[in-house]
Amino acid sequence: MTYSIVARDEETGCLGVAVQSGVLAIGTRVADARAGVGAVVAQAGSELTWRTMLLDLMASGMTAAQAVAAVATLPGAEESQFAAVGVDGDAAAHTGPGCIPEAGHATRGPVSAQANMMAAPTVWQAMLAASSPAPFAERLVAALAAAEREGGDVRGPQSAALLVVGPTPGAHPTGYPDDPVVDLRVDDSRDPVGDLARLLRTARAHRHLIRAHMTDDPDELRAAVALAPDDPTALRAAGITLALRGFTAEARPLLARALDLEPRIARWARVSAERAMAEGNPHAATLLGWL
After folding, report:
1. 266 and 132 in one domain?
2. pLDDT at 266 > cutoff 60
3. Helix 192-215, helix 218-227: angle, nearest 10
4. Which of 189, 224, 242 marks a domain boundary?
5. Measured at the alpha carbon of residue 290, what is the angle toward residues 285 and 291, in degrees to the nearest 5?
6. CA–CA distance, 154 with 278 (Å, rounded to integer)
7. What angle do CA 126, 129, 132 make, to 5 degrees?
8. Which of 174, 189, 204 is where one domain is finished?
9. β-sheet bridge partners, residue 40
10. Does residue 198 belong to any structural domain of this protein?
11. What is the phi/psi pair of residue 77, to 5°?
12. What torsion do the CA atoms of 51, 55, 56, 61 make, to the nearest 10 degrees?
């Protein structure tokens, strides 16, 4: 009833998992990853606790293959499917003979694609064969899209999720321990993979907003809008900030679009303009005049 991919990016060392299924909120039930340890999925008839078990076994020093082999001895493994990849070595997977067909998996180096209850037996190989020059998270989503092109879940799609963590705890630029690089879910949709791709673009845009705040670089605001031209948050931040820096011709259509999408932004824009005016910003009156 689910297809997924687990992988390690050999360039960055990041670990990731992406999944799609014909049930509600699959991201809360199948996928997990731990910075500096690995990425796993436990689907079909798997117990929810097997995700943590696989990660704990790898954290204790087992390879992905050893962890998968250990879990494969548990009662119920015959009707279950699970996979793992660690910070080094190859990925590994198990497809029990009792999984509902079409079911199977394919591995290649630090990547494993697995699927059960599929419309065609070509799904998992198509995921493994999907290639793209895009960043790691986008490649994981591209693998899901490849599965959909092969027919995907025999019942149709409903939910999808994407989780990427760093090669070591705290490796993410925010500096927080185990902070995920990407953690997105689409819980109920007729096009969960398409929606997941859109959310990933929006997430990238919001990272530009964070960097704009940290670096005071207006080009980061422009990059955010370029990635998510219909996202009210990106438009709001770029419109207000660029206006207060004197880029009024550029800022006004951005803020106008933001207000079309979410009229309540006007209140925040007014607060920002009044605060800037009190601080002596020469462009604040222009912004206030637009409101």
Report:
1. no
2. yes
3. 170
4. 189
5. 100
6. 61
7. 115
8. 189
9. 32, 84
10. no
11. -65, -25
12. 150
Residue with tokens 């079309």: 260
- Closest to 201 (Cα-Cα) out of 164, 237, 228, 168: 228
In the block, residue with structure tokens 């670990």: 15
In a domain, 56, yes or no: yes
Between strands 80-86 and 38-44, the pairing is antiparallel
Q: Same domain for 154 and 282? A: no
Report residue 70 CA to chain centroid gap.
29
> Do you find a cis peptide bond into 102, omega within 30 degrees of 0?
yes
Contact 201, 226 (CB under 8 A): no
Q: How far apart are CA 242 and CA 260, in angstroms?
A: 18
Q: Are residues 66 and 172 in the same domain?
A: yes
Q: Which band of pLDDT confidence, cut at 50, 70 and 90, is reported for residue 175?
A: very low
Going by their DSSP bridges, the two strands 111-116 and 31-34 should be labelled as unpaired
Number of domains making up the chain: 2
> Which CATH number goes with the domain that contains 78?
3.60.20.10
Q: 265 and 183, same structural domain?
A: no
**Rg of the chain in Å (alpha carbons):** 22
Helix (H, G, I), strand (E, B) or coil at 200: helix
Question: For residue 77, what are the domain limits?
Answer: 2-189
Rounded to the nearest 10 degrees, how much is the dihedral formed by the CA atoms of 257, 263, 267, 270?
A: 30
Q: Which amino acid is at 207?
A: R
Is 205 a domain residue?
no
pLDDT in tens, 20-79: 999 999 999 999 999 999 999 999 999 999 999 999 999 999 999 999 999 999 999 999
